[in-house]
Amino acid sequence: MTLHRLPPIALVPALLLPVLLGAASPALAARPLSADERLGLTCASAFALVAAGQARGEPGMAAYPPLAARGREYFVRLAAQLMDDAGLDQAGIRAAAESEAAPLRRAGVAGVMPSCLAALDRELPPPAR
Fold this sequence. Notes:
Layout: H1 12-21, H2 35-56, H3 68-86, H4 90-107, H5 113-123
C-alpha cells in the first residue's frame, strides 16, 4: 500500500481550523457592557418578546410592526458587534440578553418600544412599500 503525501500547502486549512474555531487561543476576556450595548440588548429582547407575542396572536402585540424578521436581524448584528467589541461569546450574549429580558417580562415592553423602534428604524429601515 502506498501512502500519498499531501503537499505542504494542503495542510494549511487543517492547521488553521483550530485557530478559526478559537480552540488554539484562550477566549478573550469579556469587558462589562456599556449603557448603549445594554440598551441594544434590551431592545433586542423587547423585539423577541413582541415577535413571540405576535406569533401567538396576542392582541396587544398587534400595535407594533411585525418584528420577527427585522428583530432577529437586529439581534444578529448586535450579537456580532458584542462578540467583536466586548469579547462576549455565545453564552455571554445569551446571559446578558436574559438579564435584560427579565425586567421586560415582568413590566412589559411598552415603556421601551418607542425608543427601540426608533433604533430599529435607524439600524434596519423598514422595507419600502
